[in-house]
Amino acid sequence: MTRPLPTIGAALLVDDLETLAPWLIEGQRDVEIQDFISPSRLDGDWRVQVDRARSLLDGHTGRLGIHGPFIGFSIATPDPVIREAVKLRLRQGLDIAVALGATQMVVHSPYTTWSYNNLDKDSGARTRMIEYGHATMGDAVKQAEDHGITLVIENIEDKDPMDRLHLANSFNSDAVAVSIDTGHAHYAHGTTGAPPVDYFVTAAGDRLSHIHMQDADGYADRHWRPGMGTVNWHAVFAALATLPQSPHLVLELADNSQLRAGADWLIAQGLAR
């Protein structure tokens, strides 16, 4: 039996729903709302934007997520004072996800190129990173479990695709999984010697719940539409086809006016629908 092609959705702002909601609803595509990254939005009356999103997405029965807060912090901070601020931001993000009816929240990996080269230099450093992650995220994981939300840890500078997988698995919870940003992985491949993007997919395996799809050149975090860069999309989708699950697939572009064109390119390649 032939497996159906995956459906491409979009990561976007509520303003973008004014024009893109009919396309998203018609195809019941994955949606990720990204308005709640901003600290000013988190500290303001975010319920107005949630209500607007819910209204514009009326009739959407597809999968819905948000990009969680990340500006200025690590989810494995060693500083207990900063940790309290991070806990607040994660709690705010999850409160918004609950109000919106979202079942995923993206958070950023704490692993960097520096950590790749240094965590094994100092005895116990790798274990401490996991411990800091639990101290920072533990409350959020419990909140996510209580509301049926999955926190997905997105690669940012990750060179080893297994690092954030080990962090996710250490919680022993269905409320923590991993995300891949294809452009971030391609950047790491091109600049730090990380494996290519499809290796990130294979490494994540059945713990992969979400993908930010963007094209890039292996030099910078471009967020181009697919077809504009050098990501090997056929290899990426071949790797996806081996997985037992269907991760959320959302285009995350620098120019959201290109979202439909990006989806159309993947469809024309016979990779998605």
TrEMBL record:
Domain of life, per lineage: Bacteria
A Pfam family the protein falls into: AP_endonuc_2
Domain Xylose isomerase-like TIM barrel: 49-267
Bilayer-spanning residue ranges: none
UniProt protein name: TIM barrel protein
Annotated source species: Devosia marina
